[in-house]
């Protein structure tokens, strides 16, 4: 039997490329052959910012190759990556199949691991060539499950949401989540609170596409989402939960931080030196992920709240996060070096595992959530869009790992929540965060659920490859 050749294709967004590269490395360690496909735009960005890492991973794994595909965007006015990712994905779906077909043929691909965000992109191709198609959903199991239940929610008139006054209504028809979520916790798109019909159609298409694949991979672990996973398994029998992927990889490689960086922004490592000078669990790490944008007013509310809390903070403000570039300078000038540091992009996994970090003020992206869980760092959640409002609800109400600040942006609330997490309720949050971190570690160690599921997945890929 030949070594299986797996094509891995992430959606062109930071959280997706990061995670799927980790999956690629886990499969490479097990000696599979990998072609990692990126859009040209993303590949060029990775190369320009992480050239040494790209060289080192390529040297380390001779069975890895990178390939690119067009995203069919105007090169001069490229939208980059962000909220418009849905449009970029639509273009790839519309025009990308011939290129994908060429790669499958020329590289003799035996299995495709496709980002679930691409929906049906490879369904026909996999059938035509008789190869396995596995969908990798980069979001939590709870999000996959909510998407699955959307038709039922529509039938029962639970959605669409009827307006701002409707936001606290409890959603009742999601098995396994009864009495947990309100309208305001449902996934959102764009700036509107409502989930419009176009988006709803897309979400339904993704679910249908995953059902047509041979298997589904989720970046989660059994102890974190077991009630939801047992619901999903009724519909997706071949479901592999192998996360937290970054932790799985680090554990397998016996390192504490990832060897390969896939940053879309230039990492500022000065924050690591700064953290060394801070006392144990004294710093709030603040980061709103790779796509969140904020208004001047919102940034200022957070800044005042953090200053008023009297806790030191390390804050990631990406250059494309605020329109007014001068604002970042203003904040830097108004913050003493002892109290706060602002950087454009941090080595987040390393930051979260630093002993000086006491809390994470986060947008609740799924990767950030898992990274915080693994390090046992309690969270204050300020979700922005997409799956984030649901993640933050689980963090606060189900796992009791932090507080949910959604739909509020007020300096007093920021100050109070920081003090609750760092001082008043420190013991209770630390206890539950440490307990969950232990379960995450257990899952990726030999005989843990994610460890075993990864071995099963590899066995499945090997046994179904021609
Ligand atoms: C969004 C979604 O909300 C997420 O749930 C989905 O799966 C992917 O798209 P994003 O805004 O990118 O994600 O957030 P997140 O999923 O948290 O991923 C951000 C990644 O960037 C994390 O892996 C984080 O470690 C990394 N990061 C962030 C850095 O390395 N440095 C930083 O300064 C900030």
TrEMBL record:
Question: What organism is the protein native to?
Answer: Medicago truncatula
Instruction: Name the family.
Output: Belongs to the UDP-glycosyltransferase family.
What is the E.C. number?
Answer: 2.4.1.-
Q: Name one Pfam family in it.
A: UDPGT
Keyword tags? Glycosyltransferase, Transferase
Q: Which GO terms describe its molecular function?
A: UDP-glucosyltransferase activity
Q: Does the keyword Transferase apply?
A: yes
The protein depicted here goes by the name Glycosyltransferase
Q: Which InterPro entries match?
A: UDP_glucos_trans, UDP_glycos_trans_CS
PANTHER family from the entry? GLUCOSYL/GLUCURONOSYL TRANSFERASES (PTHR11926), GLYCOSYLTRANSFERASE (PTHR11926:SF1392)
């Amino acid at each position: 039997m030949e070594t299986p050749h797996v094509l891995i294709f992430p959606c062109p967004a930071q959280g997706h490329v990061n995670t799927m590269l980790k999956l690629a490395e886990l499969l490479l360690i097990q000696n599979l052959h990998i072609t990692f496909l990126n859009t040209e735009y993303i590949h060029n960005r990775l190369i320009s910012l992480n050239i040494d890492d790209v060289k080192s991973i390529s040297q380390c794994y001779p069975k890895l190759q990178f390939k690119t595909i067009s995203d069919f965007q105007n090169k001069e006015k490229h939208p980059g990556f962000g909220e418009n990712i849905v449009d970029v994905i639509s273009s790839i779906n519309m025009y990308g199949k011939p290129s994908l077909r060429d790669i499958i043929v020329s590289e003799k691909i035996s299995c495709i691991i496709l980002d679930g965000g691409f929906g049906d992109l490879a369904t026909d191709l996999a059938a035509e060539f008789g190869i396995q198609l596995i969908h990798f959903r980069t979001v939590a199991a709870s999000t996959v499950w909510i998407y699955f239940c959307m038709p039922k929610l529509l039938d029962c008139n639970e959605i669409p949401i009827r307006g701002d006054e409707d936001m606290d209504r409890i959603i009742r028809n999601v098995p396994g989540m009864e009495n947990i979520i309100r309208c305001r916790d449902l996934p959102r798109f764009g700036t509107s609170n409502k989930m419009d019909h176009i988006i709803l159609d897309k979400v339904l298409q993704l679910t249908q596409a995953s059902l047509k694949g041979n298997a589904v991979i989720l970046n989660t672990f059994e102890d974190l989402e077991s009630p939801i996973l047992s619901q999903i398994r009724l519909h997706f029998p071949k479901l592999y939960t192998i996360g937290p992927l970054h932790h799985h990889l680090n554990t397998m490689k016996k390192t504490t931080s990832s060897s390969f960086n896939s940053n879309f922004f230039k990492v500022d490592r000065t924050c690591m030196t700064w953290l060394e000078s801070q006392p144990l669990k004294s710093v709030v790490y603040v980061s709103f992920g790779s796509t969140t944008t904020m208004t001047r007013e919102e940034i200022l509310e957070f800044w005042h709240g953090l200053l008023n809390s009297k806790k030191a903070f390390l804050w990631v403000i990406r250059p494309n996060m605020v329109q007014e570039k001068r604002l970042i300078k203003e904040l830097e000038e108004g913050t003493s070096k002892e109290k706060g540091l602002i950087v454009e992009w941090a080595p987040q996994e390393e930051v979260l595992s630093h002993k000086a970090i006491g809390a994470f003020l986060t947008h609740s992206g799924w990767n950030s959530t898992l990274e915080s869980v693994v390090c046992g760092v309690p969270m204050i959640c300020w979700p922005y869009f997409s799956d984030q409002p649901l993640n933050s609800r689980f963090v606060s109400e189900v796992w009791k790992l932090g507080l949910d600040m959604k739909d509020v942006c007020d300096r007093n609330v920021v100050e109070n929540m920081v003090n609750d997490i760092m001082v008043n309720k420190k013991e209770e949050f630390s206890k539950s965060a440490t307990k969950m971190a232990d379960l995450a570690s257990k899952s990726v160690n030999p005989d843990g659920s994610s460890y075993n599921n990864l071995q099963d997945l590899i066995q499945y890929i090997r046994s179904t490859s021609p």
